[in-house]
Amino acid sequence: xxxxxxxxxxxxxxxxxxxxxxxxxxxxxxxxxxxxxxxxxxxxxxxxxxxxxxxxxxxxxxxxxxxxxxxxxxxxxxxxxxxxxxxxxxxxxxxxxxxxxxxxxxxxxxxxxxxxxxxxxxxxxxxxxxxxxxxxxxxxxxxxxxxxxxxxxxxxxxxxxxxxxxxxxxxxxxxxxxxxxxxxxxxxxxxxxxxxxxxxxxxxxxxxxxxxxxxxxxxxxxxxxxxxxxxxxxxxxxxxxxxxxxxxxxxxxxxxxxxxxxxxxxxxxxxxxxxxxxxxxxxxxxxxxxxxxxxxxxxxxxxxxxxxxxxxxxxxxxxxxxxxxxxxxxxxxxxxxxxxxxxxxxxxxxxxxxxxxxxxxxxxxxxxxxxxxxxxxxxxxxxxxxxxxxxxxxxxxxxxxxxxxxxxxxxxxxxxxxxxxxxxxxxxxxxxxxxxxxxxxxxxxxxxxxxxxxxxxxxxxxxxxxxxxxxxxxxxxxxxxxxxxxxxxxxxxxxxxxxxxxxxxxxxxxxxxxxxxxxxxxxxxxxx
Length: 528
Ligand code: ADP
Ligand code: ZN
Prior knowledge:
Blueprint: H1 10-17, H2 28-36, E1 41-44, H3 52-61, E2 65-69, H4 73-85, E3 90-93, H5 99-110, E4 116-119, H6 121-124, H7 127-135, E5 138-143, H8 165-169, E6 175-179, H9 184-194, E7 200-203, E8 211-217, H10 221-232, E9 238-241, H11 245-257, E10 262-265, H12 271-283, E11 288-291, E12 306-309, H13 316-323, E13 333-339, H14 341-352, H15 358-376, H16 381-388, H17 400-403, E14 408-410, H18 412-428, H19 435-443, H20 448-452, H21 469-481, E15 485-488, E16 493-496, H22 500-504, E17 511-513
Parallel strand pairs: 1-6, 1-7, 2-4, 2-5, 3-4, 5-6, 8-13, 9-11, 9-12, 10-11, 12-13
Antiparallel strand pairs: 14-17, 15-16
């Protein structure tokens, strides 16, 4: 080149001219080169890592149309608009379109006039779509959100199973599968189901060093949330996740009453209201979105300063994905979760009543128990998270357990007291009760319900006065997390598990985390 700088190749030119970026991010260059050369790839990269360019650039550099399979139908229009704004000839095919609109897109595609075609998986499964693809020149298949093919994962879409046909029908067209979910089990399933055994795997680090992970015992959740927002995130944009639509409405109203610019978002709201709230969250400064997990997939807002969970996520994958929406600009951000006994009871109930077979329910239960382990760990949260995703790391120094190491204590005797109360009720009286009644018995309280069932005559009545009510709740919560106790039924009744016998029979010791409110240390005092 005239000024002596090395000439840029096609990929680097496209990065600069089309996307306006000067340098590739970690990992992008190798992936792009591999796919441009016609290789298959499996890309595991955290949310915000820059996966899209890994197929967009090869699609532009190679000749023909790049087909992007995505389950996010609601976002296709936005994705296409964003590409068109950059001058890329993009379009999509999905069920939201009318016949005429679809015909137009198909004609453009067959004529070679598209750089990118976004396709819903159920459209790809149609023989008519396959014949259309036969007639066109295709540069690559990108399979976005590839973990949707995994039945073990948290986001299974049956339509994704048909994607195994891509390779059989068009073996010469390179495929790049991308996901932000990278547990070893999910990865293996993606490889098997999509026939990616020969594909090169690109695994980025899942560490998000700028996120400060915190999990607190849930005491007065609304006040705890308000304290976080006022104390550390005044005026910041953030997301508050709630399990139900009802609690979304309540929390949003509560925040507004307290002078915080909050908006609700859940699937029960009118589509227009949802779109408006989402647009305001993206456009305006300092909006707090109070939402169910329906909100967030594919939303690219770099300056989300906090993600707060008012309820326990159902899996570590979900937790990681949701918290990953914070701090995509690389600046410090907070991932905060308030978690209590009631969460465990509620999620267990959801699992017990969920549709699907036993294997599915066992799957959900395994996901929940991994999440509980992350909550109750006395070790670094980040190490716990990364270990879950099969990546090694060392204690981070800025999560809550690193900064304020929790004390653990020998809870064997306390555990025995709870379990033997449950045991006595179950065996001697054929009764089952929830945590509240068990704790009343241990504390020796003469409540109306204790009188009604004559529980004061149990030998365990009043044997637990060494701990207070909230400490007993923490014991029960951790027994559930450890699988030493289980809940069943609509009323959250407690029952023993196979493992309970080891504790009752003095064959197993139980160590527990001591709940302590986190000292109100300003974020600035954190080690850099
Ligand atoms: P992912 O799909 O992995 O969640 P995206 O592809 O949406 O991430 O990228 C996240 C953000 O990073 C987007 O705003 C994108 O434009 C930006 N980005 C991606 N690659 C680069 C790059 N090489 N230089 C600068 N910004 C980039
Ligand atoms: Zn840590």
